[in-house]
Structures are given as C-alpha cells and as structure tokens.
Design brief:
By secondary structure, this protein is of the alpha+beta class. It has one domain. It contains 2 helices and 5 strands; from the N terminus they run H-H-E-E-E-E-E.
C-alpha cells in the first residue's frame, strides 16, 4: 500500500507544478499583442489568448551553457491563427526578452 501512497504524492506534486505560471507570462501576452500589431499595422479583429504555454527551454547560441525560457502565446487576426514564441533570459526576475517568433498556423 505504501507505493500507492508515494505515487499519489508524486502525482499531486507534479500536477501542482504544472499549474504554476511563468513569472514573465503577463509581459509575454503584452509582447505578443505588440508583435501582431507590428505585423498587421492595424488593430482590426486582433486578439491574443490570455493563456501562456511553457515550452522546453532552448540554449543560447552565443553561450551554450545558458538556457533560455520559451513561452508560447496564440493570437488571431480575423480568422487567421498565429503562434508566437517569446524567448526570455534566465534568471526571469527581470523578464529580459531575448527573441521572438511568429508563425501563421492556418492552412490555405
């Protein structure tokens, strides 16, 4: 019976950590909106989701020892969906934006 108790504790701890939000989530949403505005120029039917997905970290090309956090935000312009990934420097206390990418996720 003890292995089940230990497994239940581990599952509970894992679920709690998965629900934690990244300290740079709010700036990422704000930056994603600015990125879509930059690409489209006008604020017509533009929306950005308020959820941020934490992606696996990437290595800094200038310093392979350093890992960078990647946050993914989805946005929409008219009926077109965009996936934006915002890359932040660690430690995240200052939320220093190191890079960003935007990709249209719609099929035409």
């Amino acid at each position: 019976m003890r292995p089940f108790i230990a497994a239940g504790v581990l599952l509970a701890c894992g679920a709690a950590s998965a629900q934690q939000t990244h300290p740079c989530a709010a700036p990422a949403i704000k930056q994603a909106r600015a990125l879509l505005l930059f690409h489209h120029g006008v604020d017509v039917n533009l929306s950005v989701d308020d959820t941020v997905k934490m992606m696996p970290p990437v290595r800094n090309p200038a310093d392979p020892q350093q890992l960078l956090d990647v946050l993914e935000v989805n946005g929409h312009v008219y009926r077109t969906r965009y996936r934006m990934r915002l890359i932040y420097k660690r430690p995240v206390s200052s939320c220093s934006l190191m890079g960003q990418e935007v990709l249209e996720s719609s099929s035409r």
